[in-house]
Write a structure and sequence with these properties.
Length: 205
């Protein structure tokens, strides 16, 4: 059976295993796009598995909003979807998505920043008339905070606030969307079952 045409975004707080998920789905045949960062990083030896244009575009947009993920928790500006910078980003991402889906029938996009920008992706999907699915990875807040402290020296209270912001954003903005939530613990303890479930959700054979 062929894969359905769809756009899937992998969301979740940083240090929650989204890179592991993207790498595993790629091994199962998922199309992550033509410009994927797979280079080893000191904090992520197996690579981030993020589309370069996507993570850079989302990072720049969040900076424009005064909302860098690692230092400034809080809400996005009012009516941010109507900002010219947002419209330009939607147009750019829609062009990439249209190309990827035309070539491969689907596109799986991993970037934790998407957790804060799900409405943008809803507009991208509408622009190209594609179904949108949300693959949500959840790791316990204490574990994320410990990982960020070890990697970045981030204070625990800040890490907990950022974690909570990400969860609230995902809860609010994915409520009406087709969403699969997978716990980090399940991926670690039962990887075959977890990846089978995620692969099926992404339409992989």
């Amino acid at each position: 059976m062929g894969r359905p045409r769809m756009l899937v975004i992998v969301v979740g707080m940083h240090r929650s295993g989204t890179s592991l998920v993207a790498r595993g789905l790629h091994a199962m045949g998922a199309n992550l796009g033509e410009r994927i960062d797979t280079a080893p990083h000191p904090a992520n030896p197996h690579g981030h598995w993020e589309h370069t244009d996507v993570w850079q575009g989302q990072e720049q947009l969040l900076i424009r909003f005064g909302r860098e993920w690692h230092s400034s928790p809080g809400t996005l500006p009012d009516r941010w979807l109507e900002w010219p910078d947002t419209a330009a980003t939607i147009e750019r991402f829609a062009a990439i998505a249209a190309t990827e889906i035309a070539r491969h029938g689907h596109w799986v996009v991993k970037d934790p920043r998407s957790s804060l920008l799900i409405p943008l992706w809803r507009d991208v999907a509408a622009r190209i008339a594609s179904p949108l699915r949300i693959l949500r990875i959840v790791r316990e807040a204490d574990d994320v905070a410990a990982s960020l402290a070890a990697r970045d020296g981030m204070p625990r209270p800040l890490a907990m606030r950022i974690w909570a912001d990400h969860q609230r954003s995902i809860d609010r903005d994915s409520a009406t969307l087709d969403t699969l939530t997978v716990r980090h613990r399940k991926i670690m303890l039962a990887p075959l079952a977890a990846f089978a479930e995620m692969g099926a959700f992404c339409g992989l054979d």
